[in-house]
Amino acid sequence: MSYFSNITNAVGTLIAGMKVTMGYFVRPREHVTLQYPDEVWPIPTRNIGVGELDAYNTIRSKLTVNIDDCIGCKACERACPVNCIHIDTYKAGPDDDLGITSNGTKKKLLTASFIIDMSECMFCDLCTPPCPEKCITMTPDYQFISNDNLKTDVTPEQRWRDKNLLIYQFSKVSETERQRLKVEAETAARAKAEMMAVKKAAAAKAAEEKAAAAKVAEEKAARAAAEAVAVSKTIQENTKNNTSETLAETNTETVLVSEHGTSAEETTPATDTVTDIPLESISSAVTPEAPSELTADTEVVESPVDHEASTTKESDNG
Amino acid sequence: MIQALANWILSFDILAGLGNPIAWGLSLFVVSALIFAFVAVNAIVLVYFERKVSAFMQVRLGPMRVGKFGSLQTVADALKLLQKEDIIPRSADKILFLIGPWVILVASVVTFAAIPFSDTLLAANMNIGLFYVVSISSIVVLGIVMAGWASNNKWSLYGAMRSAAQIISYEIPVGITLIAVVAVVGSLNLQVIVQAQGGVGNLFHWIPLPLPNWFIFHNPFLFLAAFIYLIGATAEINRTPFDIPESESELVAGFMTEYSGLRWALFFLSEYANATLVAFLVSIVFLGGWQSPFADYAGAQIGFLVITLVAVMWTLYVKAKAQRLSIYPVGISLVITLAAWLFPGFAVWLASPGLFWMLMKVASIIFLLMWFRWTFPRLRVDQLMYVSWKVILPISLVNLMGVAVWMWLTGEIQF
């Protein structure tokens, strides 16, 4: 009899299952699908941030800078644990008026470049509290698809694929102006360095002359002293014990010094060989490309750099 | 239909000089192209339909991005498949690997030659139409074994072997249930089978419930036979819950694991062609084919009134249980009922047999197959064999005996 009860049980459970699926089929408006680019999940309204501004009462996501309020103090750049903020500032000339911030602070530095590399940002929110003008803030934009700055014709797909599109330049200074400022600063620095070198050379010359004069004087004094010793030797023949004691003291001191020196020489080169050599090789592979990518923010594909770095690492390991 | 088309071609004065053989060949080509176009378009529509049905049953939305409500998604998929590389594994049996999908496709497309779409739309009116369809459609297993063996892949071979075992097992109960129908009609001609189901009569001849004279309502044994045929046919076309030949969780994709691009698309095409074929056969053999369910225009009016009342009552019942329900079924049936009562011509059209009713029935059966697929869990290999040999085969044999006894008792046939 279990044969027939088995069949009826199977038919009954199959019909029960079909009822369930049909129950969902006739209500197609009740779905769990989120049509992502068209519909987005609501942003949580609870307070996650640590600051006192309203802008903090959201999720921590894309950084934004109100560049009109920035005084170029580089507090955020110093606070960033991953070095994703890169700021270039130039001192304003005596005639330039850079305006004042919304707090009333007079701007003394021209922020020529304010780059945030969001591909390296870890959303720790440590850069916002040090800002004296409260001009760098976290926004709730987690999608990174707004075309508000840098590149206006970038589609979301391109921004997801290309890491360079996540490097944001906030400064309003134009690229040519930035280059001009850079060249100007470089020439000024070079002139200063040359001036300093001239000064230094003069100082060195003066010091040399002084040293030569001192040497001559010293030699004279030494000669005079030797003569004096030679004269006094004959006089102090009897007090030999005293001089032998002082000689012994000086000998022990020199031995101690030499011991210290050898121990230091043994330890430090060993540590250098362990740590420094692989680091140097990696940094030498990275550095030639990295500055151009960050400062010029051109479409430099930096994958070969990564590749080189990884290969050097592998070869070191091997 | 081919001869009719040839006669139509020859009826033009300019083309009359072609002669009958050339006109016949031309019309043969046209009809073949039409059937293949039907199969191809049908697959594209059914894939979209299937994805939407599965999505709604799983509280999802399905394709939504390409076209309005994702309606062009399958067109885009088909275009993508055509462009993809046709990879042949190095250690594959090249010739068998290349012709396997074509054998499957040809076997499933050629069967449509004997399917009557309506009383005139029929490529070949054979007196052994049912036998032809059943026999040709079982050639599919040959192509599956070819593909599975030639792939030189353990998943493919497992899938092909399972498929062969499964199709051979389920051919027997399917054949026996169809024999039960043939016993009632006395003919293997599909057109004769459909013509025998016209009109409206009592349920099982003596229960006073006016229902169409379809074989599913002819007697209780044939009612059961329809469901047995549906189960067996589902297994024959390798659809869930009988999809062990291509079970994704065990064998990667079964016999089509190594295929890509156009050849993979051919498998898909033949899969949906087979599903449509099964739906056609169920409609023709058990649901009256192109016959209308209504005897005359008054019957259509009253019938749709009853359908609307049932839909309204069902909706009210569901609402009383505090569950939500779409109002589309009620709305559609209400609109059709109003149209049937206001415009007698529409009611006459509803009561007349034709392609519309054939396609309606086929669509319903395909929806039923999809409903099965997205509800039932897959059977194990041994369970599959158990269901075939120990459950469905005995029931179908008893059913055949029951049909014979019923026919003898009601005096429809004399010995």
Overall description:
The complex is a heterodimer of chains A (318) and B (415). With 318 residues, chain A is mainly alpha-helical. Among the domains of chain A are: 1-32; 54-173, Alpha-Beta Plaits, CATH 3.30.70. Chain A contains seven helices and five strands. The longest helix of chain A is centred in the middle third of the chain and has 61 residues, at 175-235. In chain A, 11% of the residues are buried. The model of chain A is unreliable at 147-152 and 252-318 (pLDDT under 50). With 415 residues, chain B is mainly alpha-helical. Chain B has helices spanning 2-10, 20-57, 73-83, 94-110, 129-137, 140-150, 154-185, 190-195, 220-236, 261-286, 297-320, 328-342, 344-351, 355-373, 381-410, and strands spanning 200-203, 207-212. Chain B has a two-stranded antiparallel ribbon with strand order 1-2. In chain B, strand 1 (200-203) and strand 2 (207-212) form a beta hairpin. The relative contact order of chain B is 0.12. Classes of the chains: A mainly alpha (318), B mainly alpha (415). Chains A and B meet through helix 1 of A and helix 2 of B.
What is the gist of this entry?
Chain A has 318 residues and is mainly α. Chain A has seven helices and five strands.
How large is the share of residues in beta strands of chain B? under 5%
| Cα-atom radius of gyration of chain B | 23 Å
CATH class of the domain at 54-173 in chain A: Alpha Beta
Main beta-sheet strand count, sense and barrel state of chain A: 3 strands, antiparallel
Physical arrangement of strands within the biggest beta sheet of chain A: 2-3-5
CATH architecture of the domain at 54-173 in chain A, please?
2-Layer Sandwich
Number of domains of chain B: 2
- Provide mean pLDDT of chain B, rounded: 84
What are the secondary-structure elements of chain B, in order, as H or E? HHHHHHHHEEHHHHHHH
Enumerate the spans of chain B where pLDDT stays under 50 for 5 or more consecutive residues.
Answer: none
